[in-house]
Amino acid sequence: MRKGMIKRSGSYDIMFTAETNMDNKTVVIIAHGFGSSKESPTAQMLMKELPKHGIGAIAFDFPAHGESPVDGEFLTIDNCIDDLMDVEELVRNQNPGVDVVYFGSSFGAYITLNYIYGCRLRGARAFLRSAAVNMPDLFRNPTDEERQSLEENGYVMLDYDNGRPLKVTEEFINDLWEHDLFERFRTFGADIRMIHGSSDKTIDYARAKEFAAKNDIDMTTVDDGDHRLSIPGAPERVLSEVLEFLNV
Question: DSSP 3-state assignment of 99?
Fold first, then answer.
């Protein structure tokens, strides 16, 4: 496993971890969830298991996440989409003719879907875990403390398990609504698979099911599964579904 960065003149650098080689015919680009990073358990599982089947994997940090050198002022949907695009460019430059497949967890799935839609990626292939298809709703009802901070400072600070506080600006919240998947998304012929837990308390299962039905997307249900799909057997289920999607 190698760590590296994509250096971009006049902008921030993108930190990534990769398990790829020149023989890979397929490389999976892994986009992490909100408040998470390229070091998430799901990303690390895929980085470990996919190469056993000859499939490369690369995970990266969105702005203000993980080892990203910038804070929440740079956390915008367009920046996240640009990051995903630049990671894909890196992969294609290193492996000309490679088949790129996207794997998105939660917020990473939200970005992946906006990327597919915004770039009209006809024929793209994407596997989405606990997809945050209604991401804007997560900020619809801020607490009194959060509302006060937004009014006084223009941002709120959120704490996540990875130990890095996340600055969420009012502009970012508005940005989410500008990229509302229920309002704008079209598949453009993309091959998309979803997997979602029936007991997800973060992204409601019914909303995920509604989105899948609206866009004719196959969705696998993990009974009693939580948002992270961390209950016994769920990570293995995710892996087996990914491998099946990749025709392994």
Answer: strand
